[in-house]
Amino acid sequence: MNIPSKILENAVDQIASLPGIGKKTALRLSLSLLKRSNSEVSDFVHAIDELKKSIQLCDTCYNLSDEKKCKVCSNSSRDHGLVCVVEDIRDVMAIESTSQFKGVYHVLGGIISPLDGIGPNDLRITELLSRVNNAPKIKELILALSTTMEGDTTAFYLYRKLQDQEIEISTIARGVSIGDELEYIDEITLGRSILQRTPYQNTLHKQS
């Protein structure tokens, strides 16, 4: 690709470093920015800068937040006794888009994957256990993890760690196909899978 300006080439390279964006798309976006007014470009740059500098993780659930406590955790109308355990922040967004879940969340920050060098200590499992022990009002944990081998391994690990607690442990219904990640599932299917969740120990009987 013959780019006549080093400044433009640098902008293209930076935009192309984002996932899913190739050089041609990056060039088109860079040229689009050139056509915008100085104030529009300034607003764009400010938004990106603020995204990096100001956004934080919720002290309670580790969802993205503008404050120390996210909008879900600070909402008194949510059921704080019902905690949905997810792998990633994108899963929170996917579940929230269904408008079917009225509880709160706990974001693990990944799933156990020995091939990728990710073990239990690399996730927010200790924080989850502490949350359960220090918040007696929690009555149910929903394990809403991807239906992959890694997701199932993580769910089983959590179940073993939590099975002696006096709380119900459930998992999303298998309306979600095996191998699916939550963020790519349509809202209706995901919503139904949460509403039709089953006790986790029932899945162990089926597997055996």
| Separation, N- and C-terminal Cα atoms | 57 Å
Largest sheet: 5 strands, mixed
Name the beta content range. Answer: 5-15%
Number of strands: 7
Work out the helicity level: 40-55%
- Topology as a string of helices (H) and strands (E): HHHEEEHEHEHEHEH
Quick one: overall form?
elongated
Low-pLDDT stretches are none
State the CATH architecture of the largest domain.
Answer: 3-Layer(aba) Sandwich
Within the CATH hierarchy, at the fold level, what is the topology of the largest domain?
Dna Topoisomerase Vi A Subunit, Chain: A, domain 2
CATH class designation of the largest domain:
Alpha Beta
Average of the residue pLDDT scores: 88
Sheet with most strands: strand arrangement: 4-3-5-6-7
Q: Return Rg in Å.
A: 21 Å
Structural class: alpha/beta
Provide a count of the helices. Answer: 8
Q: Your description of this structure?
A:
The structure is a single chain. The protein has a five-stranded mixed β-sheet with strand order 4-3-5-6-7. It has a two-stranded antiparallel ribbon with strand order 1-2. Helix 1 (6-16) crosses helix 2 (23-35). The protein has two domains: 6-54, RecR Domain 1 (Helicase, Ruva Protein, domain 3, Orthogonal Bundle), CATH 1.10.8.420; 64-207, Dna Topoisomerase Vi A Subunit, Chain: A, domain 2. The protein has 208 residues and is an alpha/beta fold. It is elongated and about 65 Å long. It is 43% helix and 13% strand. The mean pLDDT is 88.
